[in-house]
Amino acid sequence: MAVLPMKRVLIAGLRKNRKQMLELLQRQGVMEIEIRKNSTDEEADPVFQQIDTTGIRATFEKNITLANQSLAVLDAVTPPESADGGLFSGRTRMSLTDYETNTKKREKIMDMVFDIHALEKRRNEIAAEIPKTESQLEALVPWMELPYPLDFAGTKSTKTFLGTLPNDVPEETVLAGIDSESVAVDIISHSGEQTCVAVTCMKEEAEAVEEALRRMSFARPAVSGDVPAKQKEALSMKLERLAGEDENLKKKIAAYAPRRDEIRFIADYFRLRSDKYEVIGGLEQTDRVFLVRGFVAAKNAQSLENLLTTRFDCVVELSDPAEDEEVPVALQNNGYAAPVEGVIASYAMPGKGEIDPTFLASIFYYFLFGMMLSDAAYGLIMVLGVAVVLKKYKDTIEPGMRKTLTMFQYAGVGTIFWGVMFGSYFGDLPAVILKTFFHTEIGSLALWCEPAVEPMTVLGFAFIIGIIHIFVGMGALAYTDIKQGKALDALYDVGFWYLLLIGAIGILLNTDMVGGMFGLHLNLPDGVMMVFKVLALVGAAGIVLFGGRESSNWGLRIGKGLYALYGISSYLSDILSYSRLLALGLATGVISSVFNSMAAMVAAPPVIGPILFAVIVVVGHVLNLAINALGAYVHTNRLEYVEFFGKFYNGGGKPFEPFTENTKHYRVSE
Predict the structure, then answer these.
(1) Entry pTM
(2) Vertex 452, ends 423 and 438: CA angle to 5°?
């Protein structure tokens, strides 16, 4: 378990080599570069200046967006023939030679991107135009029997009103409402909701007729223009033309499908350039020279210096960071502990002077996870499933994803162990199969005990694990204090608590209430009990005397010490938290048994019975594995974060973030 030591780096290079040097650093991905904010006029360096790269980065980001949108359009029109591995597949490796070859084609690739974008834009316009045209066609339907244009207003001496009346209104009612003998009413169409009418009158009566129609809630048509039949023909032809144009546009877009990889490349290319120009904007430079400052892991420092000085005319200066300097944190652990680094990073990286807790956390992580899931078959599925994924995507899977999967694989090993100890193989499925189909009874398969049969035994063991886990965390605090030259703090903050807790645990276990709860009847000798009592008293006295040692006033100091002693209640609650080891293990086993029993209930019919049995078993155990594996993951993290880290680990370190290829599709290698 180690926090990698860091070296501060200062690189002075010729500006003509800036592009090549930064791209090399980006491909190597071993140096974190300091991005310095633009200085004010008062702080401005008279020699070195900074360049504003905001505008050009905005252009790069726009190109990235266009490329990604074009990929989305291609995927919608012509989905990729073979689905990739999603999270597991990672990025495709690309040689530097292929990268440079594709870079020369960037303008042609962008022309393709712009063309796809324009084609899709037109498709969107068509998609908006089609429903509009269809609604116009629908509005024409009631007027199809009208023999003249919808905007017909009458003749030289007559006035015609075209419109609708609410509900189904007969001709007689309309005439009665107008009350004029020189009016002609034609019912064009009618339904329960509306009546389409054409009302014709002499021009001198137009105002009176219009007023009468208004009283009947007369409304002008939603459409206008030529004869409805002609409009329908024109609109139908328009719909056919739009559909044909859309199909033609889809074919044009689909023609670019074989060049999908080029678009993926261009999206990554501009991502690299955008990141590079972000760095350039934070560099100090003159017309001929530029400076790069940052950090590199000490193990990579010399090789980076050799790589740069052999390829470029530059100066690389390596130095140790200052004592008060905030140094980025990177972790390095062995193959057993490294998979848990993601769990540590999700909490916090080690702060200044703190130890890397990865190894200590990993000792318990797989053990706790396995005890919560505790089914040998589930564990075997996890181990084999991860093995298949790691083998299939061994060349492309990202390092972070590889670590996460490996963590679950090791957790699967822990699950197998506890499944064997508890005799759980898809719950009690072996016993159910033998009883249902072979009418054979078998005993317990547990190598140790069954949680559902002996819950107190498992609960007592869970508390023992919790005590050990907490004590290791306290020991890590003592180790950190001693390493920093604060041995007395280790005694005051850890040693006295060890004494108090060990003494209190010994006293409690010898009582009928606590001991009987776990089936223990110790009846320890008086001498042993006296030792436990002395340990508890010495520990309590030490906590009271030194728990508030930062205060010089003895009254205040004792008060703070008594308050610190009250902290024993938090230790009790921490230990009780480990009861979740029993609870989640029981949940896995009980739910498995429920599904097995449900399957056994429908297994009687000769042919369909076994099929239904298999379906219920498979579906039930898939759900049970998914739900309880998630629960085991969440609660294992909780025990590590709260009960374990809470005793010695604060975090707060700044993660090491090297300048690297933050691409999505390709990873350029030297």
Answers:
(1) 0.86
(2) 55
